[in-house]
Design a protein that fits this description.
Elements lengths: L6 E4 L3 H9 L5 E3 L5 H6 L7 E4 L9 E4 L7 E5 L4 H6 L1 H6 L1 H8 L4 H6 L2 H5 L12 H6 L28 H7 L3 E5 L4 E5 L19 E7 L5 E8 L10 E9 L5 E9 L6 E2 L1 H5 L8 H12 L12 H20 L4 H7 L5
Parallel strand pairs: 1-3, 2-3
Antiparallel strand pairs: 4-5, 5-8, 6-7, 6-8, 9-10, 10-11, 11-12
Helix pairs in contact: 5-9, 11-12
Length: 344
C-alpha cells in the first residue's frame, strides 16, 4: 500500500502550525505518524496537507508546573515521545499509571516515534474500519468512513469504533488537564472532557485546535497503576484496560479514588460507582471484589475488536481486581506475566 499524494509543511512554532491548520483545505497534524500514516495508506484518512509538529521545540519538554493553586505537578509537551516519557524518572516515580501505559504502547521502535499527544488523539479502531480500501469497499464501507451502516450493530445510529489509546485512561485516573491552542485562542480542559462516546466524533478538540500540553497535578499521597489486556503480549492495541488511582490515609483507608476503563467504548469510561465504593475503606479482598463487580457494569464491549465480547466483559472484573491489588501493595509481577499471555 502506498501513501496518497499530499503537501507537507514543517511548522517551527505552535502559532505557525495553528495558522496553517486554520487555513481552508482540510489539513491534518502529524507528529510521529505511527497511526495517521498507516491510516492514509488504507485511505481511511486522505488529508491534502500534513502539518508537521516534530520541529516545534516547545512541544518536546517536560517540566514542573503549578496548576491553579495546587502543589507542583508536571507539564508534558504533546510532542514528547513515548520513549522520552518512559525514560523520565519523574514520570516513573510519581505517575506510575502513565509510565506503565506509555511503556506498553506498541514496540520500542514505534515508541521512539509516537508522541503523547498522538496517543491521546489516537483514531478509534474497529474490525470493519481498519482494513484496506478494497476490503471496506466490498462490504459497502462503514459508517465511520464512506458508508452509512455500523457493521458492529447494524441498527446503531452512531459509529461504535473503540477507543484504543493507552495513555488516556491513565491520565484520566491521574486527574490531568490538556491545553488546546488555535490561531485565535487557548483553552485548558480536563482530560476527561477531551473525549465523547462516538466512534467518529470521539474528540471534543476542534478541527482548528492543536493539543499542545498535558498537565498533571501533584500526586502526593496517591498511587496509580495501569493494566492492559491484548492479543499479543509483546505488542498490540488493548482489547481492554484499567487505570486506577487512589489517595491513602495514614491508616491505609482510601480517601479518594478513580477507576477508568479503556477499550470498552468509543471513549475511556469512568467507573465512578466502583471508585466511590472504595472511599473510607481499606483495600481488603472483599472490598476489592465489590469494586470490581461495580466496575464491570459500565463496561459494554462490542464485537469490534479482538477476542469474544462476552469473554472481555467477564474478565474486566479480573483485571480491575489485579489493578486494585497492586494499588494495595501486592506483588503482581507474576500476574502481569500471566495477563500478557492471556492466562486469566
Amino acid at each position: 500500500m502506498r501513501l496518497p499524494h499530499f503537501k507537507y509543511h514543517a511548522a517551527r512554532t505552535v502559532r505557525e502550525a495553528a495558522e496553517l491548520l486554520a487555513a481552508p483545505g482540510g489539513a491534518m497534524l502529524v507528529a510521529g505518524g505511527t497511526d495517521l500514516l498507516p491510516n492514509m495508506k488504507r485511505r481511511q484518512q486522505v488529508p491534502p496537507t500534513l502539518i508537521g509538529l516534530r520541529r516545534i521545540d516547545e512541544l518536546r519538554t517536560i517540566h514542573a508546573s503549578v496548576p491553579n493553586d495546587e502543589r507542583p505537578g508536571v507539564a508534558i509537551g504533546a510532542g514528547v515521545t513515548l520513549t522520552e516519557l518512559v525514560r523520565d524518572p519523574r514520570i516513573r516515580e510519581s505517575y506510575g499509571a502513565l509510565w506503565q501505559a506509555a511503556s506498553q504502547v506498541a514496540t520500542p521502535h514505534l515508541r521512539n516515534m509516537g508522541t503523547l499527544g498522538g496517543n491521546l488523539c489516537l483514531d478509534t479502531r474497529c474490525n470493519y474500519y481498519d482494513q484496506n480500501y478494497e476490503w471496506r469497499k466490498a462490504i459497502d464501507f462503514c459508517m465511520k468512513k464512506d458508508g452509512e451502516t455500523c457493521w458492529v450493530a447494524t441498527g446503531s445510529p452512531k459509529c461504535l469504533a473503540v477507543s484504543s489509546t493507552d495513555t488516556a485512561p491513565a491520565l484520566l485516573a491521574l486527574g490531568a488537564r490538556v491545553t488546546l491552542v488555535s490561531a485565535n485562542a487557548t483553552r485548558q480542559v480536563a482530560a476527561a472532557d477531551l473525549y465523547q462516546n462516538d466512534g467518529i466524533h470521539y474528540l471534543t478538540r476542534r478541527p482548528d485546535e492543536i493539543l499542545t500540553a498535558v498537565h498533571i497535578p501533584s500526586t502526593d499521597g496517591w498511587r496509580s497503576v495501569y493494566w492492559k489486556l491484548r492479543r499479543r503480549g509483546s505488542f498490540d492495541f488493548p482489547v481492554l484496560s484499567v487505570a486506577a488511582a487512589a489517595r491513602f490515609a495514614a491508616d491505609g483507608t482510601v480517601e479518594a479514588a478513580r477507576i477508568i476503563l479503556g477499550a470498552v467504548a468509543s471513549r475511556p469510561i469512568d467507573a465512578a460507582a466502583a471508585a466511590t465504593a472504595l472511599i473510607g475503606l481499606r483495600l481488603t479482598d472483599e472490598v476489592i471484589g465489590h469494586a470490581a463487580d461495580a466496575a464491570a457494569k459500565p463496561a459494554k464491549p462490542m464485537d469490534n475488536t479482538d477476542f469474544d465480547l462476552t469473554w472481555r466483559k467477564r474478565v474486566m472484573k479480573d483485571v480491575v481486581t489485579y489493578a486494585l491489588r497492586e494499588l494495595r501493595g501486592d506483588d503482581m509481577r507474576e500476574w502481569r506475566r500471566k495477563i500478557s499471555k492471556q492466562m486469566l
